[in-house]
Amino acid sequence: MAAHPQLSPQGPGPSRPGRGTHPAVSVSQTVPYSTAIPGGLRPHTWVKVTGSVPETSAGFRVTFLYGQYEGANVALLFNPRFEGAPHIVFNSLVERKWGQEERKENSPLRKGKSFTLTFTTTAKAYEVGRRHHYTFRHRLPPEHVRFLEVHGDVTTHRTFTRRHRKTFPG
What we know:
The chain contains no helices and 13 strands. The protein has strands at 24-27, 33-36, 45-52, 60-65, 74-81, 87-94, 97-98, 102-105, 114-121, 125-128, 134-137, 147-152, 155-163. Mean pLDDT is 82; it is low at 1-23.
C-alpha cells in the first residue's frame, strides 16, 4: 500500500491534540464490520467508507453508535435499501426508541456498483455525499459517538476518519 501523508495504516489511535488531523484507516473489511472512533465526532470530522453493492443486495446499514452493547444509542443510521425504488432511510435510536424515519428517494447507490460515502459532521447535522447531498440533523450529540458499524449486503474496501484542526484568525 502506498503511503499517504494524511493516513495511518495502523488504524485508530489516541487523539493527538495540536497535530491537525486524527486519521484512522482500516482496509479490507469483513461485514459485519466495526471500528472505534476515538474522541467521538466533532465539527469538521469526516468518515469515508468505500465499497461495492452486490447484485443480490437488499440493502445495508452504516451506523454511528455510542457503544457496542444491545440498545446503545445510535446517533446516525444510514440505510440504503434496494427493494423497489432505491432509497435511503436515516434515523436515530435514542434511549432504545427509534425516531421518525427520514426517507430520501433517488439514491445514487446501485446494485453491482462501487461507491464512496463521505459522512461529514457539522455543528448541526451530518452531511452525506457530495454530488447527491443529504443532511440529517443531530438528534444526539455526535461527540459521544464511539463506534462505526457496517452490516448487510455490502462489501467494504476501506474506511477512514479524519479530524481537521480548528484554525483561528491570527
